[in-house]
Amino acid sequence: MTSQRPQQSSDTSEFGDAVPESGTNIVRVAAWLVTGTVIISLLYFGQDVLIPLAIAFLISFALNPLVRILVRRGIPQVAAVSMVMLTVIAMLLGLGLLITSQVSVLSAELPAYQSTIRSKIAALGQTVESPGLFDGVFQTIATVQEQLATALEDAPSNVTEPLAVTVVGDGPSPFATTIEWLVPALAPLATLGIVVVFVFLVLLDRGDLRDRLIRLLGGNLHRSTDALEEAGKRISRYLLMQLIVNVTYGIPMALGLWAIGVPGWVLWGTLAAIMRFIPYVGPLLSAVFPLALAFAVDPGWQMVLMALALILFLELVSNNIVEPFLYGTSTGLSALSLIAAATFWTALWGPLGLILSTPLTVCLLVLGRNLPQMAFFETLLGSTPALDLPTRIYQRLIASDPEEAYEIASEAISASSVTAFYDDIGLEVLRQASEDYHAHARVEHRLRVVDGMDRLLEELREDHPAPEASHASTICIGGKWQVDAIAAEMLVHALALAGVPAELRATGVVTAHYVDGLELEGVDTVCIGYFSRDPDTAIRGFVRRLRRRWPGLRITLALWNAPDGAEFADRAEALGVDQIVLSMDEAVRRMSLMQPEQMAAASLPASSESENARLEALARTNILDGHAREDLDELAARAADVFDVTFAFISALDAEAEYILGQSMDLPGQRTASQPSMTYMPRAESLCSHVVASNDPVVVPDTERDPRFSDNPSVRQWQARFYASVPLRTLEGHILGALSIVDRSPRQIEDAELDLLDKIAADVVAVMTKENAVVPEPRREEPAAPRSILGQRVPD
């Protein structure tokens, strides 16, 4: 018998000795430390070259939009750059002349204020010297000083004082003196000249520079391009918002000082606007000068107090109203990272580093978001929470802090709904708890999670009470574990909020005695929920006993932790259940449709005043005659190609049917008599009616899991599994129909992709109405909680 030599693992050396994993980690950390030290050293010792470059790139980010506007209007690149640069230089020279003239006027007037300054200082001195709280302290200090002076005078001294020797020479030459004065003055001018040259070159050949940066970043071309675009947009927006904030601060400052009577009010308003470009320190420095001048001008204290009140008021308004409104998420940096970055760059590059700290840190953040090898920058610097919502709540429960977990849950619910919270976040918390049950969690942790979830659900039921019902038609049962029972408790609350009276039954071992004790007389539906991935054996026995005891009972099986992409068409019949649901939202929808009153409420809304106005707007377009078919087919093909889906179609909804106006491929279906090439669906079976009714985009990652679409004839005929649709909204706000993309396999779609679909939809509306349409505002930048696998409306 031959023996097979085991394959050498990557954790062993060439001599067969095992390399400890901790040793590998230490080497990796040491390599990072050495690399960081080298980079910081290069930044420090190369600051004479790097600072002008950084300033030049920063200014080019601010000026590039102006250059692009001029180029788009037909002006050559060189002429556009020259015009922008000359305009900026002229404005800076004008600003310098203004400041110089104001300073000269003030310097001529300052001697007139000397008497006021002397009288105020004398008055302050008298106030300090008058009897007060610290007289005893001052007297004690004076007595000690007198005793020390007496002791020093009485002490014998045999030391001979050395004679002072003065060396008299020719002194420095006039040339040396001139050089000594000129060198410090010429250094800033030389730096300014370098910055101007760099800005001109960057603006002149921005495309070539972008190509070189993309080549240096390497890796994925799409990610490198996105990184540069995102950095440019964030920095440009930050600088524009900073300019607006500073101007809206400087103008009221100047006008307020003018009304108070402080001389040089134009100078102080301009200085306040300029100094606010320096974070943290600039506003403080700009406030010193007008306060000092108010102190010198007014013999009393009224002008000083009024100037101080004006500055404090403007600071409060700017910091708490103007800046949060304008900045928003323009940088994406957290408050802590902004302060840490300001400290780091100031220590490295001095005052200029403080000014450049935010744009430079934004560049690092963008690199972390787009380059996987630098992802730690996003964790360290970004304003996005490091943990997603389910993990944050789960961690708070492990830490025995259910109060904070409740605060996080309340904030999430305020942005969506209770059912959406249970679906997206609550079930995910329980999934993490079930996965950690044997792997990591101790007994104490398990108890904390269970108790914390009980308290959390109790608080949520009190904050979002459901209508009381005399009789529960639906019973929810947790299959086996405690997490199953908690999920069943969530489902009971979600069903009650949806108008389906439900009750919870305790989880227990599935025996004949347990089934008999359920007391299901008068109950229509039972839902059994499991987090186990393979509960078939237990389910079959449970369902068999339920069927034997209550033959007419409808049974729903909830598999909260089913693997992605699994098929359940034949599994329900094999297990003996009526249907299988995979999410909280799907369970609520399917069990709501089992209620007769809920089925009636789920029908499409009747005609109303707004619906009549919408139909009139559709009729004015005459789009149903098919005159724009070629253009709409082209837009549908573009959408299908961009989003890489099976097909896309454009449809309009009138009072009787949904008509497909454009399609990327020939779709089977019913044809109209007047337009044989136009497919239509009766309104009761239409797809875009959900978009029209909700007035929002509709995203269905898997149509088989959504009862609104799973039995739709068109969905079945087209074999559609994924459906996403955005409304076709006119300038008046009427929704004519929808632009839809369809794929034959389940998938997800991001908010940024929906923004692109909105842009194509605006082009469709322009073709239909022959008027420009408004593109909706982009959706939130920060990543939202993971979507459920069931279709849901996309929040604005």
From TrEMBL:
Keyword set, alphabetical order: Membrane, Transmembrane, Transmembrane helix
Membrane topology: Multi-pass membrane protein
InterPro entries according to UniProt: AI-2E-like, GAF, GAF-like_dom_sf
Main location, first listed in the record: membrane
SUPFAM superfamilies: GAF domain-like (SSF55781)
Highest rank taxon of the organism: Bacteria
Region called Disordered, residue ranges: 775-796
Transmembrane segments: 26-45, 51-71, 78-99, 181-204, 243-265, 277-297, 304-322, 342-367
Domain annotation GAF: ranges: 627-779
Subcellular location: Membrane
Pfam families for the chain: AI-2E_transport, GAF
SMART domains in UniProt: GAF (SM00065)
PANTHER family for this protein: GAF DOMAIN-CONTAINING PROTEIN, SLR1143 PROTEIN
Family: Belongs to the autoinducer-2 exporter (AI-2E) (TC 2.A.86) family.
Protein name as catalogued: AI-2E family transporter
